[in-house]
Amino acid sequence: MPDNFSTSKHDDGGEAVLNRLKLLPPPSQRSDLFRMRLVSELNEAAGKRLTVVTAPVGYGKTTLLGHWASQPNFKTAWLTLENSDNDPAQFFRNLIAALQTVNRNIGSDAFTMLQSQPDISMEKVLQRVIDQIGMVLQDFTLILDDYQVIRANPVHNMVNYLLTHQPPQLHLLIASQTDPAFELNKLRSSGDLKEVRSPHLAFTMDEAGALFNEVMQLKLPYGEISALVVRTKAQPAALKYAALCLGHFGNISDFISEFENDSREECIFLVEILLKQQPEEVQSFLRQCALLPQLSPSLCTSLSGAENSAEILENLAGAGAFVQQVDKNGQWYRFHSFLSQRATTYFTGISEEKGINLHLRASLWFTQRKMISRAFYHALEAQNFDLAGQFVEENAMEMLQQGQLVTVLNWMSRIPARIFEARPMLSVCQAWIAIISGDVSHIEQHLATAEKANASVPDPKPVAGHIAAIRDYLESRD
Predict the structure, then answer these.
(1) For 383, phi and psi rounded to 5 degrees?
(2) Domain residues of the chain, as ranges?
């Protein structure tokens, strides 16, 4: 993996930093157990075209792959996927960036091809990338983590094309909470598929014993370990949190008895116990920052008011509790995967009004750092649709020029009609999108809405210029 991604400690950087972090597995935590059994199983897949690691959240998929990828002389290209990767242009950019961590020549001319040949098919561009992969002298694995977030068929099609035409140097590994949308049965019958699923990822008794007694130094007897394995259904995250709780619990037998008799989902019980063991300052910090997909010291201070956010995050990550670093310098963290999807459920106590205010603060923080996609997300969560509309109005044209058509369409679909009536540039963008997509049937409606809204703005000239340019283009087609 590349080693030139570091920036100064606690300098949270901007969008580019978070995008680069998508290309790196999260650093190993002191509380992690290296599971040689599973690493060896993944090593056996070297001759197959595809490995899928599929299990619900909390089964340690990312941790396992991070350990596997850290083996000496082992070459991997890593990409952690997010919802924004459903935009085909965004996904392709990130895919090329990941592949270039193995060899800078892979995809070096892909974007030139797309810009100079607007009608070129994606398959031809991908075939060029595949040919360049074929020039790499060393075998390597492309790891796509969190693939369950991908819903867009064009992205599935790209990955499927890569899988179907992959050169012998490339092995593809996909980690997901659900099966990826490929013909797994065909790969299975041809012997080209390696599968690692929940039963494989569940802890064995030996692994649970190693976690409790070697990693966490708890020195539990076999009977208590067995009881915890049964109660947690051997789920890795639940066992790890049970170990963290035991480290602060006075009487181990009382804890196990309470845990066995509690009817709630195992992780909900364990998070509540561990949260109660934290100082009030830390509990308040977690509740106020629970709405954040990513956490940095500066961002958390903006939301929580805690001036020692860096220390809190560092201490929690060091103990293996609630959060983990996603870089090596303590700039960025995230909640553990099983927490991140329901963090506000686990860390309750924030009123709806307070939650809206926290989202607005987060939106402002990201805006100041020109991290617009994240600012837009938090504006929507705050139900401040005028602010969200402003983000689209100010950035959509540049995004369209960068090929982010799907993202712009998705953003616009989440803006209420009343906002379009007050922000004329939104309707202008709709008109340009109609031209780009070749469907001009509703373009006059968009222009009429833009003209009506433009009559009420202080400076109507920019929008009027766009409207005139669009009409000139339409006339030139007739």
Answers:
(1) 60, 25
(2) 32-198, 205-276, 356-477
CA distances from 261 to 255, 269, 359 (A): 10, 11, 38
Q: Cβ(80)–Cβ(86) under 8 Å?
A: no
Q: What is the C-alpha separation between 163 and 171, in angstroms, rounded?
A: 9
pLDDT at 12: 57
Same fold? 32-198, 356-477: no
Instruction: Report pLDDT for 9.
Output: 39
* Inter-residue contact 372 to 395 (CB < 8 Å): yes
| Rounded Cα–Cα distance for residues 318 and 6 (Å) | 19
Predicted local confidence at residue 13, as pLDDT: 58
Pick out the chain residues at pLDDT < 50: 1-11
HSE of 148 in the Cβ direction (CA atoms, 13 Å)?
Answer: 15
**Cα-based torsion angle of the residue sequence 23, 28, 32, 36 in order, rounded to the nearest 10 degrees:** 80
Q: What is the secondary structure of 361-423 as a DSSP string?
A: HHHHHHHHTT-HHHHHHHHHHTT-HHHHHHHHHHHHHHHHHTT-HHHHHHHHHTS-HHHHTT-
**Phi and psi, residue 250, nearest 5°:** -65, -50
Per the listing, tokens 């600012």 go with 375
Residue type, 68: W
Structural tokens at position 42: 């993944």
Other residues' Cβ atoms within 10 Å of the Cβ of residue 13: 18
Decide yes or no: CATH 3.40.50.300 for domain 32-198. yes
Q: What is the pTM of this model?
A: 0.88
How many Å apart are CA 318 and CA 311, to the nearest integer?
10
Asked if 68 and 42 count as a contact pair (C-beta separation under 8 A), the reply is yes
Name the token pair of 28. 């190993």
Instruction: State the Cα–Cα distance between residues 408 and 207, nearest whole angstrom.
Output: 47
What local confidence, expressed as pLDDT, does residue 350 receive? 83
CA distance 460 to 455: 7
Strand partners, 323: 335
Q: Would you say domain 356-477 falls under CATH 1.20.120?
A: no
